Amino acid sequence: MEKVKEVSIILLQAHRLVALPEDFLKRYHTHIYCHRGSLSFLFNDRSYTCSPGEFVFWFADSKLANLTFSKNIKATVLLVEKDFLFANIPDQSWSIDVVLHSKENPILHLNDKTYKQKVLSNFQLLFDKFSETSHRFYSEVLKLQMQLFILEMWHTFANEYEHRKRTLESGSLYERFMQLLQEHCMKEREVQFYANRLHITAKYLNYICKQNTDITASEWIQRYARERIILLLQNKKLNISEIADEMNFSSRSFFTRYVRKVLGVSPKEYRQRMGD
């Protein structure tokens, strides 16, 4: 039987005091369900507040600051070691969508009690399986439970994503552009594509983005493409040619030039640095 490397999964029931490990942001993916009170934080330089009935999620190494909890906080916290979670992701394309969505929307609104119970039950099931070290097939069942956990969380994410998509369809041009970007940035990297979908000119789309965020549409497209490239290069099951095909580049050499532009190194050099 294959053994799981030393893995750490922590489940906390926090009342008034939330004692997170010092290295939690570096070592763990963080999941927090807020029962009472609130927590506030800066995420990617934007301010957020998580209220009762809401669920917050951060990937390890997220740009997080000023995390504070209200005095009456009651929360369920699950910390999952980052390498173990990534090693058991069932579908890489969905993981990319989750990362990009979470970078823009770290808080999920679980208004439906059914989803609240599913999330909390999912936390408990994973922790229980992690704690059952005497199980004859401990490594195998823990990995399977990790995959089930991820699929359940993706199910919750997908419902939130669809709700947000419906809401944004009637939103501003900028909001609709950002929604289109999340959906199509894997294969579409030209401003004109998004402008056509919005029935405006590329120049006007750049202007709208600049007015809203001081960042042009072309810069936003490059940022999202960069995120996807990094995630795909981190998946060592894919070779560089397969990634180029997945992202709709006409050739591996064109993909390599684009990666040099957005990352400053070639795909091969990036992977070598990952191994350092």
UniProtKB/TrEMBL annotation:
It comes from the Bacteria. Keywords: DNA-binding, Transcription, Transcription regulation. Residues 175-273 form the HTH araC/xylS-type domain. GO terms for molecular function: DNA-binding transcription factor activity; sequence-specific DNA binding. InterPro entries: Homeodomain-like_sf, HTH_AraC, Tscrpt_reg_AraC-type_HTH. This is Transcriptional regulator. It comes from Adhaeribacter aerolatus. The lineage of its organism: Bacteria, Pseudomonadati, Bacteroidota, Cytophagia, Cytophagales.
